[in-house]
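Fold these two proteins, one after the other.
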Amino acid sequence: MTISIVIPTLDEERSLPPTLTHTAGLGFDEVIVVDGGSRDRTREIVASYSSPQFDVRRSMLNVPTSNFEPRTHIKLLTAPPGRAPQMNAGAAASRGDVLLFLHADTLLPRDARLAIEGALEDPACVGGRFDVRFGRDSRPGRLIGRMINLRSRCTGIATGDQAIFVRRAVFERLGGFSDIPMMEDVDFTRRLKHAGRVAALRSQVVTSYRRWDACGPIRTILLMWVLRLLYWIGVSPGTLSRFYSTVR
């Protein structure tokens, strides 16, 4: 099977270089970065990865150079801002039998491809997600990571931080991500689990702690719980996104 990675971006010049450098060496068939109108160097950085003057431009842009293995084709697209439309655009432009949606601040495990292929050997498995841990090791971070993984394993619902993957045919049958301003990951995985078995992989992605640092772990946990509760009782994602923007 072929596997395409789709990365939505918006002003990710700091997080994206290590993610691209790491991901390009993992043996996936293509990486499609879909930018939603960045005003920083995000698009220039992505373009540098496919430039004939790669090494020179990468050095000028302060992109990590150690252990880089450019085995994966990296493509840049633009789309209207919003993770849902950006990821849908990337999926439409991709060629893979399997789609993996990755955040710009998240690193896949080294065995990611093998883990996905192993899960999808079961014809009943329609997709899945990884366990998550934070890049900065701390007691609150370890606890939050365990809570996220446990909640996901119990409910069958995943968030974008967990690197959701899905068979293309299933993604298209479900109509992709709903065009909503937030909770697109929760909405999609809720529909996905009704389409077949969803793999909860023990391999861990490493994601940034920046959101938790910015707002504080307790405040962020409470905010996420409140937002999900309101979503489950029927408050529209549009209303939630306005509330989220105001609080953060």
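Now the second one:
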Amino acid sequence: YKGQRCFIIGNGPSLAQMDLSALKNEVTIGSNGLYKKFGDFGFHTDFLLVDDVVQTEIRGRELSKLKGPVKLASLYNAHSLSLFNDFLYFYVPTLARNREYYFEEEMYPIFSEDFGSVAYLGFTVTYLMLQFAYFLGFDEVYLIGVDHSYGELSKIYPPGKVLITEENHEIVSKCHFDPDYYKIGDYIGVPHVDMQDKAYMKARKFFDNSGRKVYNAGLNSKLDVFEFKNFEELF
């Protein structure tokens, strides 16, 4: 994909306010439950990537049946997916999942230039998608739907997994493009925003040093690590 551009589509609530029909003929990379929106989009993303163990367990059956995009999952999620499936598996080393040695030491974050061999975590699936886009060779990457905010949820709960209950479901329903993205009994991850910022800055450094660019073309996004672009002006 050298010389081309792609769009990484997050799962933020801003997507519900955007017309993405222009992306039908663009190369797109999505993640997690974005497939719920494919019918509204009028197209499916070219790639769909999943990593979070809890999310993959929740959506494993639907993901296994999903047809259209090239589907990628971290190898440690294979247990949640059908034995005979059309997933490609990427490798995240055990060390890169160890909080004591990776997340709390100076080695964090590591950015992989060879996603086909190894990938590293950055407290958000978007960091994995950026490594994947880098590996594929795109010159320009545009982020949309990466709102970088969980609203009231992150004000009430500390970073980590939160059980969704009747009491907090209304707050949770505002965290994604679909109010029914999660159901009561599921778990949602409250982000470590400061750790995400470190990962995004690392990704920007690698893209910049290779003469390539990442832009934020989302709506009402709080992610200011990347230069903002007007989505509609890209077409």
